[in-house]
Amino acid sequence: MLRRAAVAIGLLAFAVLPAHALTVFACEPEWAALTRALWPQDATLRLHVATHVAQDPHHIEARPALIAQLRSADLAVCTGAGLEAGWLPALQQRAGNARVQDGAPGMFYATTHVPLLDPKPGAGGNPFAGDVHAEGNPHLHADPRRLRTVAQALARTLQAAAPAQAAAIAARADAFDRDWATRTTAWSERAAPLRGAVVAAQHSSFGYLWDWLGLVPVADLEPKPGMAPTPGHLQSLLERLRAAPPMAVVVARHQDPRAGRWLSGQFAQAGTAVPLLVLPATVPDPDAPDALARWFDALLAALLQARSDGATR
Ligand SMILES: [Zn+2]
User: How far is the CA of 205 from the centre of ligand 1 (A)?
Assistant: First the structure.
């Protein structure tokens, strides 16, 4: 009698949970958006996003709410290559969730699936010594070609985490792949006027975007990746760039814009328009359909506008 009651209660507990629910912890909004794009629409997904567009993903506080979210996760989807080195290990340790420890099938790092720019194999640098890219540039989501490869890898990981959804995930992944290939070609064609355009940027948040579209990043407002701009460094950049001013100074939305504003202002005083572009370094709205595609659309629109403004000056 007691055993039957226990079984009944057990079944009841299962019935409360939606079938095939998966709980995913995304370190950055782009991975939340990609997970949503690959997950079947009629299956339940609990998606936690640790960061948003106004935050620097290098520097996040390991808050109790994030620990609780990681503790409940079946799968964590993060960038890797040291991007989250300052906070994810603390979350993993405090969450004590074996499913999302490094090396577990539920811990997905995008950077392990594609070659990185500025790779530093085995360097193992110290982020506190001023270089937050100790393993290479981790901001690969700004290259749609690499994103496409990561999408296929993430689809396989989602299938392993939710075998009952494997066929539906495969269909979503195929549809995403076809759509993304078409969009990537269209973006490349649309961005043709940007090829060879020179930019000064703060940090290499958009390094993969420049690489993909053939823009030339001639200056980084940071003296080293992750080190705040200094007056001396900015002054030397200004002197170096005066002879051939860049198309724009590009700062990510989560960064302090003062250094970029100063540099842009110095050119303006000298009679040269070098606009300050403040661009989102990730999707502002990871829950929206087509969030990733709309982000690339917006980045290209802003850069093309700066290009055409520059051409008419
Ligand atoms: Zn970085």
Answer: 6
